[in-house]
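## retry 2 of 3
previous attempt timed out at serialization; input unchanged, resubmitting
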Amino acid sequence: MSYDKCVRCGSCVKFCPIFDAIGEEQFSPRGKTYLLQVMDQIDEDEELGREFRRLLFQCTMCGRCAEICSSDVDLLRIWHEQRAKAYETAPEEFEYIEALKKSLANVRNIYGLPMDDRAIYWVDELEVDFPDIEDRLYEEGKNADVMIFLGCLMSFRGSQIPVLHSLIDVLERMDIDYLIMGAEEFCCGHPLDLIGDEEGAKELQKHNRGVIEAAEVKQVVTCCPGCLMQLRNHHQLDAEVLHHTQFFDRLLEDIPKYSQKEDFTYHDPCELHRLCEVKKEPRSLLKKMEIEFREMELSCCGGGGLLRLTDPNLSDKVIQLRAQREKLNRSTVITCCPACREQLLGTDLKTVDIVELLDQVMRGS
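## retry succeeded, writing output
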C-alpha cells in the first residue's frame, strides 16, 4: 500500500487547510495515513470506523499534501480509493452522497433540477443583451469550432450570471465560432470522481463525449477547473480542452489597459493551478491588461472536495480563516473558478473573475 511510505514527517500538516481550521491531528494527511496503517484496529472498532469514514470526507482534495510530500505518497489517489471503500462499506452513513448520486442519475446535475433548466434560466437572463443567444445552443446537426462547457455551477447558480455574461460578451466581440452545450450537457462527473465512483462518472462522460464529437469542434472551453480536469483527463476527447484563461490568453495579445481604481488580490484555484497546472495564463492576461495585484498564499478556499456538501460549517471556517489572514476585506479578490467565487461571495468578499475584467477593458469601461 502506498500509504505505508508515509514516514510521518509532518510536512503536510502545516499546509493542510483542514488541520489549520480544526487543529486536531486526525484531520491532517499524516493523521489519516497513520490511521490507515493501523486499519486492523479501526475495522475492529465500530465507532472508530465510523469516525474514520467521516474524516475522509472532511477534506478539500486540494492536493497540497501530495504536492509537498517528500516521500512521494500519492495522497490524492489514496483519498479517492478510501472514499470509495468507505461508501461501499457503510452507504447508510452517507445520505448526502445518496442524494447526490440520485440527482446525477435522474437529471444529470448536482442540484436535482430539470435538465432543460441548463439552458433556460441563464438564457432568459442574457437574451436582452444577446438576442440571438438561443442560436448558440447546441442541438443535433449544429457544429462549430469551439464548444463551451459551462458545468453545473455556471449553469444553475444565479451568482455566476455576471461571469457568464462577460464570457459571452468577449466571445461575441472576438467573433468566435462557438456553441454552448446547454440542455445537452451532463455533469462532467467530477462529483462522482470525488467520492471514488469512477464508473458512474464514465456514464456521464460518455454522453458528453458523444455530443462534443457530433458537433465536430476543435476546442472545448470551460470556466470550471473541476470540469477542466474531467474533460481533459477522463473524457477521451480528440478536441483540445482549455480553461477560459488559456483560451483567451492564446488569442489575445494587445489588450486595452485596465483603469485600475481598486486594490486587487489574486487567488489561485487549487484544481486549476495545482491539479491542472494552469498557472501562467491567468497571470499573463492580468499582465496584458496591466492590472496590479497581490499574490495570495497558495492555499484552498474550502470549496473543493465536496466539503461544501459534506461539512458546510467546516467549509465556511476554511475561507473565513483565509480571509482574516490575508486581510481580504480590504481588496477585491480576482479568481477564475466558479466554486472559489461561491466561497468568496458567501463570506461577503468582493470578487471578480478574470473574464469580467477582460470584458470591461474590451467594452472600454
